[in-house]
Design goal:
It is a single chain. The C terminus is likely disordered. A hairpin with a 2-residue loop joins β6 and β7. The protein has 24 helices and 8 strands. The longest helix has 35 residues. It folds into 2 domains: 306 residues, no CATH class; 135 residues, Alpha-Beta Plaits, CATH 3.30.70. It is mainly alpha-helical and 545 residues long. The strands form 4 sheets. Strands 1-2 form a two-stranded antiparallel sheet. A two-stranded antiparallel sheet has the order 3-4.
Length: 545
Amino acid sequence: MRTIIQALSLLLFSIFFVLATYKLPNWLPADIYLRLDPLLGLNAVFAAREIISRALWALVTIGATLVIGRFFCAYVCPMGASIDFLDLLFFRKKKRQGLKAQASLRKVKYFLLIIFIMAALTGLSLAFLMDPMALLTRFYTFFIYPLAITLINLILDWLRPLFQALGWVNLSHLHYFQSLYYMTAITLLIFGGIIILNRLVPRFWCRYLCPLGAFLSLISPLGLFKRRVNEDCNECLKCQKACPMGAVAEDPRGTHRPECIQCRTCAKVCPQNAITFPASLSLGGEYSKVDFSRRGFVYSLAGGLAVGFVATQSPFTLKQSKHQLIRPPGAIPETEFLRTCIRCGECMKSCLTNTLQPCLWESGFSGLWTPKMDSRLAPCDQNCYVCGKVCPTQAIRSLSLEEKTHAKVGTAVLKKEMCLVWAQNKICLICDEICPYNAIVFRPVEGYRRPVVIASKCNGCGFCEQRCPVKGESAIVVVPNGEIRLKEGSYVKEAKKLQLEFKPDPGDDKFILEESGFKIEEKKKKEKNIFPEEKPQPKKPKGFL
């Protein structure tokens, strides 16, 4: 029964992951597993120093654990299910001797939990590094999803001649967009390492490293259902060997209650049927206490505070002002964004164009794995606003399409020394034609038509940067100048206050290209209908163009 429930939970997690797309209905919480994670919720609340409504879903998990016990790890957690299934696949026939230092290793997950909580209180979000939900979602986003799309497209290419012969037009032209992400190899190595550790003992990650499991184990002894062993026990120790969490004590009649995940494996293998899990209101017990030394507790507190301090003083912090990071539309102000974002990768997976990519050191250690826009790779589609809908902590606000349009992420800047028109006087209209808001127009400059950017019309979508024909770095790039980052309030009102207008104006730059390229003939300069006379500009100080 447990295996079936695990399979269904993993399937449900995968379905929600697949549904996190452009067509996601507003009523469907595709990020429900992330919302149910109490460690991620507490981390975001403590770091942001405010209540986050979507994080309150974690109270369901906490309440159920208080009533039932630590069932989440055995039945609901998709990471636990993945570990169990892959363990069955790779290590089923391997002999594992176990670890002698099991009691000491159990403390590691509690050390990590305290470090993460203390770091969150200093404003540094770290739980994403080892939280199972965030880890698995990133693994799905950066590896499983792109791999699945690749395989599906390969199968479609292989079957395409058959579809054409049968006259199935839609299938013969069907091709799914292939997404790619930075840091895919790193993500694969981390997940692979978690699985390889199972070679030592079953569920090594869950036993010794998982901070979410540590949090749940602190409250699980309060649950109603507890392991009981009656007098029929013959001390065969089969339950001790079969327990995936090592929760059976040296005396098989005893139980390390914080480690018990209610999987009932011990009861299943007991030849005497001596093990049951009746409901009981009794608390405590010989093996119910968490083995955590006072010295270790103090060291963990100091470690969390130290990490929070060092992260703001590390050499990588100096790079924060050196990179022109473009955050997704609707991202709250940077300081709050870094504190609230749990780095799950859900926004990157759901991105329609694949422009959202993970940061490495561009925003310092505190910005690791946070999403950024790579406009050279892809633009931000102006009809898509799904990233805010799937963000479980609202580090990216859930906006309507109109609000998202006015959530200016930056401004395009022309690099004249690289532009084909400015530097080489070649004919190129790509940035002008692709701009959805007509923020790029041609103006007469010293006898030539030259592209210029109207900052008040540019919302930083990045279409111009992505389509620029210059090889390598684009001749027009989006920088965060003029970005609008609001924690609350209307982007539309803020844009109006700043006198920004994001509407197309097709009649602004009409002209006819001739063989002379962009050079303006003298007689055409005088034609008012083509180029109205510009007002004389005041003289600029020496050294300014």
